[in-house]
Amino acid sequence: MADIALAQDEMILEEHLPFTLDGGVAERARIGIIVLATDYTMEREWMNLMDIPGVAVYAARIKNDPQITPETLRAMEPRLTDTADLILPGADLDVLAFGCTSASMAIGEARVFELLEASKPGAKYTTPITSAFAAFRAFGAKRVGVLTPYRADVNRIVADYMTTHGGVEVPVFGSFNEEMDDRVARIDPASIKTGIERLKGLADIDAVFVSCTSVRLANVAADLERDIGLPITSSNHAMAWHALRLGGVTDERAEFGSLFTKQLAEV
């Protein structure tokens, strides 16, 4: 103990050293994302899609049920603002996203945005379905095939919302009818491809939307587009693109598919 006391007595303490500031890791865009507590996929896909110098993503997880039902989706509504508050408390964001496709429709985009604004006023807001609608406009798509993992009652919410709010026709709608998030996250890319090919064979469509943030598509979107011959996007894929564009990041990244070569279309 005497040796330690002696060392501290002899220590030279130099405080208030000069420093300068740069823009930090979020010099170009500071993007927040609310991720479902049960989601296995989104952070991994966004890590790749958002790997752009000067762009940083900050996530918080919202409590939810692993079983996807209309009731469990709507149960997240009162938790949204408090969860957003966990993201860089007291700091501004350029963009704030809520990462659940079906809950965004069950609750409604306008209500989701209201709850996000209560935490981060001044940000721009998006959801997977908001982003999908923006992607359809960027594609110039009028007839969209939809592929989901959901059970029938959730599919009805999705189909009704898209046909009412999306500005597109949905002539064909397919589902794996799986309600557990952990199983949805393990649906392999070959099954996604087969599902999309089935939809294309059943109706005349000019784009495909794969709904659900647990579904893995972002890293194979470009390959699927080449093989199938249609523009393709998914919940994570569209929302990452939309968040970047809302944040003023216009970089084109063709390796992630045709959507990432496009800018926002005027509404």
Structure in a nutshell:
This protein has 267 residues and is α/β, with parallel strands linked by helices. It contains twelve helices and eight strands.
Write structural notes for this entry.
By secondary structure, the chain is of the alpha/beta class. The protein has two domains: 29-127 and 239-253, Rossmann fold; 130-235, Rossmann fold (3-Layer(aba) Sandwich). It is built from twelve helices and eight strands. The strands form two sheets. It has a four-stranded parallel β-sheet, sandwiched between helices. Strand 7 (207-210), helix 11 (221-228) and strand 8 form a beta-alpha-beta unit. The model has no long low-confidence stretch (mean pLDDT 95).
Keywords:
4-stranded parallel sheet; alpha/beta; Rossmann fold; 267 residues; single chain; 8 strands
Number of domains: 2
Strand ordering within the main sheet: 2-1-3-4
Radius of gyration: 21 Å
Low-confidence stretches: none
Q: What is the CATH domain class of the largest domain?
A: Alpha Beta
Main structural class: alpha/beta
CATH architecture of the largest domain: 3-Layer(aba) Sandwich
Helix proportion of residues, in percent?
Answer: 40-55%
State the order of secondary-structure elements, H for helix, E for strand.
HEHEHHEHHEHEHEHHEHEH
Number of DSSP helical runs: 12
Spatial shape:
globular
**Count of strand segments:** 8
Strand content: 15-25%
Q: Report the mean per-residue pLDDT as an integer.
A: 95
Mind describing the biggest β-sheet?
4 strands, parallel
Question: Kindly, what is the distance between the CA atoms of the first and last residues, rounded to a whole number of angstroms?
Answer: 71 Å
CATH topology type of the largest domain: Rossmann fold
